[in-house]
Each structure stands twice: as C-alpha cells, then as structure tokens.
C-alpha cells in the first residue's frame, strides 16, 4: 500500500519576504475572482490566515456591491492601474468603519490576475485633522485680538455706567444694573479665555513624567467635579518621558477628564473614566518651524462610558464654538487642540455609545539630544523625569 505523501510547503521567496514586510494589505485576485495570494498585512486586516484567504472569493470578504469589485473589472477591461480614495470596506466581522484608499493594477506577468493594495485612512486622517485644528486656532487668534480691542473697552464703560446708576436706583432697578454688570463680566471672561489662543510666546519644554501629570489630574478631579466617578488606570510603567510643558499638559488632561466626567454624570455610580498610556511607534508628523519630521510614539487616552459624541459634531469637535453643552462656550477642546499642536502632537476623538476615547499622540524626550545640546530651545519643564527610557 502506497503511503500518502503530504506536499511540501514552498519556502518563502524574496518576493514573499518583501510583500510581507509591507505595512499595507496586498491581495492577488485571480481571473475567477478568488484570492490567489495575500501578504501578512492582509491577514491582519481581514482577520483570516493567508491559507484560508486563498480559499475564498473576494465577494466573501467585502460588502455587497463594494466599489472594489467594480474597480477590479475596470482594470481587467482597461489593462491600466486605477486608484480610489476613502472607500468603506467595513463588515460586521472586521469592523463597521474601515475606510481605505484602493490601488488596483493588472499583473502583466500573469494575465487575468489583479493586484489590490489597501491603505487605511487612519494616519492620513490624523494629519488632515491636525492641519484643520491649526487652521482653526489661527482663526480664533485673529478673532480674539479683534474682540479684545473692540469689545473689552466699551464693556468697561457700560459696566461703569451701570455702577453709577446703581447708586441712585431703586431696589427693583438695582437688580437690572447688577444684571448688566454680571453680563459684562461674563463677556470679559469669555474674551479673556479667547486671548489665550493669541499667546504665541515659546513655551519651555523638557522631560515630563506623564503618569505624574495624570495622577495630579485624577486627584484634582476626585476632589471636585468627579468625586463620585470610578477611575480606571491602565499605564505602561516603562514609558520614556514626554517632551512637553508640565503645566500645559495638566491643562489639557484636566479639560479632557472634565469633559468625560460631564458625559457620565447621568450614569451615577456606573460612570467610569479610563486613563491609559502606551508606546505606539510608527506615527511621524511635520512640525512648523522644524525641518525634520517628529516621531509621536507616546499615546495617552482618556476614555469614558457616556452616551458618546453626536456623529454630526465629531468631524468638527475641536473647532472653536462647537459644543454639546447648553451653557458651554466651545473653547475648551479648541484650546486643547492648540496646546497639543504647539507641542507637535496630535489629538483625535473616536466615539460610539458607551465608549468615547480622546487619544493624544506626543513626542518623547530625546535624552541623547538633550545631552548634546544642553542650551537648546527646550528647557526642562519638570524636575520629575524619573521614568526609565525604553
């Protein structure tokens, strides 16, 4: 009786190694519409091993009527590459929102075969949002300067006149003069908050222990507005210091935690705020005034289990005067975005019911560079830099 001999698995070639080294998913589609080959990034994207992918048709993986199927047919007919941007390939299995850029091209060496490369929009959208936040901040700077000059001076005169009238007014009229004074003070406070956007003075930055910042913010919150809210901490203790100004970081995370506390206030004892830190290499950003691109490997998140941000507000959440609060000014998150942007970082928000996450990506403190340039532009901002370097 002849023994059944299992076919030996082919050794990976240099071409396979190159494809597997690519961070973007790549698929080879056969003439019958089935997947002939896939790299490791495609395995991760579709959450299926390459061996199982080769047994499936592309129509089994993408949504019904997906533009990707039409693009493949277009390439088969035209025999030329085609690109399509911001295509949603989300499915219940891999996630409902998976926007990608598609690059589809014929493989001339194998007639009828089509190469498909997917590029997720996550990083590109982060960059686009960051540029939008900076543009919005510049608009607020100009508006703040105009308001300071054109509104604060007349308001001082109105308030002074109301105080003079108050001295000779009846008890009923004094209520009105007091209302005038209070409203004038409220407008001045709003203008003062906006003037912060116009402060372009260089900020002293240095090594800051992010966990010290988050612990300080947590103590402030638990002693006041978040007294009855449960905090969950998930920290990476090996994180290197962040290159930042400690006071401004406290301002950023205090604002984010305050927003989270207000989002879960109706949940009572079920309200939770989660603070996380992690090392996420791979994100780089061009910073104004610097020729080199800055790496942003440090990720800090503030997450709550509130009802979430309305979908129509999400794209403009960091723009000035955008708010979901009845009495909010809409300047808190705009200021947060400005501070993070001034530090060369990125802030983004992902929201769904019971899970809203504000994610901040920041550069880390370069100890070697600081030793080489002790008189550099970034002065120490905190004496607490005891974190170990990764």
Molecular structure report:
The protein has 390 residues and is an alpha+beta fold. The protein has helices spanning 14-21, 40-46, 50-53, 67-78, 122-150, 152-168, 171-195, 210-222, 246-263, 332-342, 367-372, and strands at 26-29, 35-38, 82-88, 99-106, 114-120, 206-208, 230-234, 242-244, 272-279, 284-286, 293-295, 298-304, 346-352, 355-362. It folds into three domains: 14-121, Beta-Lactamase, CATH 3.30.450; 129-198; 206-367, Heat Shock Protein 90 (2-Layer Sandwich). It is built from eleven helices and 14 strands. The chain starts with 13 loop residues before the first helix and ends in an 18-residue tail after the last helix. The relative contact order is 0.10. It comes from Rhodopseudomonas pentothenatexigens. It catalyses: ATP + protein L-histidine = ADP + protein N-phospho-L-histidine. GO terms for molecular function: ATP binding; phosphorelay sensor kinase activity. Residues 369-390 are annotated as: Disordered.
């Amino acid at each position: 009786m002849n023994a059944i001999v299992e076919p030996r698995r082919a050794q990976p070639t240099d071409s396979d190694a190159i494809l597997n080294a690519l961070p973007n998913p790549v698929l080879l589609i056969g003439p019958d519409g089935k997947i002939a080959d896939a790299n490791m990034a495609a395995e991760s994207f579709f959450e299926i091993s390459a061996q199982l992918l080769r047994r499936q048709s592309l129509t089994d993986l993408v949504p019904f009527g997906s533009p990707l199927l039409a693009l493949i047919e277009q390439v088969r007919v035209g025999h030329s590459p085609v690109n399509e941007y911001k295509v949603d390939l989300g499915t219940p299995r891999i996630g409902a929102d998976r926007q990608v850029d598609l690059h589809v091209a014929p493989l001339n060496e194998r007639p009828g075969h089509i190469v498909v490369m997917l590029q997720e929009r996550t990083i590109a959208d982060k960059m686009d949002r960051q540029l939008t936040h900076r543009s919005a901040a510049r608009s607020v700077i100009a508006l703040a300067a105009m308001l300071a000059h054109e509104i604060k001076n007349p308001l001082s005169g109105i308030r002074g006149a109301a105080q003079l009238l108050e001295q000779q007014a009846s008890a009923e009229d004094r209520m009105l003069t007091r209302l005038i004074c209070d409203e004038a003070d409220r407008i001045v406070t709003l203008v003062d908050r906006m003037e912060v956007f116009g402060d372009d003075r260089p900020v002293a930055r240095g090594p800051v222990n992010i966990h010290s910042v988050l612990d300080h913010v947590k103590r402030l919150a638990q002693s006041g507005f978040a007294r009855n809210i449960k905090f969950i901490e998930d920290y990476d203790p090996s994180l290197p210091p962040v290159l930042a100004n400690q006071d401004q970081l406290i301002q950023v995370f205090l604002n984010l935690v305050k927003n989270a506390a207000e989002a879960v206030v109706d949940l009572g004892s079920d309200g939770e705020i989660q603070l996380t830190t992690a090392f996420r290499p791979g994100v780089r950003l061009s910073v104004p005034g610097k020729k080199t691109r800055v790496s942003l490997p440090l990720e800090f998140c503030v997450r709550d289990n509130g009802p979430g941000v309305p979908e129509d507000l999400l794209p403009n959440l960091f723009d000035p005067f955008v708010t979901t609060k009845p009495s909010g000014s809409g300047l808190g998150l705009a200021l947060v975005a400005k501070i993070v942007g001034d530090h060369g970082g990125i802030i983004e928000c992902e929201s769904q019911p019971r899970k809203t996450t504000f994610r901040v990506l920041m550069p880390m403190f370069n100890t070697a560079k600081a030793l080489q340039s002790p008189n550099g532009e970034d002065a120490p901002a905190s004496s607490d830099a005891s974190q170990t370097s990764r």
